[in-house]
Design a protein that fits this description.
Elements: H1 3-49, H2 60-79, H3 81-95, H4 100-115, E1 125-130, E2 137-147, E3 154-162, E4 165-175, E5 180-181, H5 186-194
Helix pairs in contact: 1-2
């Protein structure tokens, strides 16, 4: 085996191993955070419910279960009118705190977009649009089409994502004739963004079709 062949197998093994390693690391991190935050609470509740049973000093699985139940309860509480009013009041106080309000707002927007099961419906299709002064192109999600009130020209409203975080980006208006249509699905485009183009297909329409 030559060096190039060894390198190829190592890179291929890394590509297969690290996605699974990242999932395992994320799960262990969630367990650690849950146990650190709620471990003592779980132990106290356990001793109340099962007074004769030994108290689990460290039970990340129980702590994670407790955290998930807590998150569900918060969502259920906010779905009620009184809970929603209280949450809106509390959120307004947080937004008024300089610095913290901006950080909280950015986090809320990102989490809301991920958590919302209908967030993909805001993206109508995937296109390619000009990105640099030269011939560069970038992927974009179409959100709307509008008409220029002056020239009556049709403009396509797109969101250009900022890899590797596809839930944030730029809102840009392009003339319709400058937009290149693709057959990519929303999921494929999101995957391309998160992998910095590594998951891109072998071929993409990057040039306008010449009109006859």
């Amino acid at each position: 085996m030559n060096f190039d062949n060894i390198k190829t197998h190592i890179l291929r093994g890394a590509g297969l191993f690290f996605p699974f390693a990242a999932i395992i690391y994320g799960f262990n991190l969630a367990l650690s955070i849950a146990d650190g935050w709620f471990g003592s609470i779980v132990a106290a509740v356990w001793s109340r419910i099962f007074p004769s049973a030994p108290v689990p000093l460290h039970s990340p699985i129980l702590s994670l279960t407790f955290m998930l139940l807590l998150l569900y309860s918060i969502s259920l509480l906010v779905s009620w009118k009184l809970g929603r009013l209280f949450f809106n009041w509390l959120e307004a106080r947080i937004y008024n705190i300089r610095g913290l309000g901006q950080i909280y707002g950015s986090l809320r927007k990102g989490i809301d977009m991920v958590a919302n099961s209908d967030h993909k419906q805001s993206f109508k299709r995937v296109v390619m649009v000009p990105f640099t002064a030269g011939k560069g192109k970038t992927i974009a999600f179409v959100t709307n089409e509008i008409v220029d009130s002056v020239s009556q020209q049709v403009f396509v409203v797109v969101m250009i994502p900022t890899p590797p975080n596809p839930i944030s980006g730029l809102e840009v208006y392009f003339p319709k004739e400058e937009v290149i249509e693709t057959d990519l699905t929303i999921d494929q485009a999101l995957q391309m963004c998160m992998t910095l183009g590594i998951a891109a297909p072998a071929s993409l329409p990057l040039s306008q079709t010449k009109k006859s």
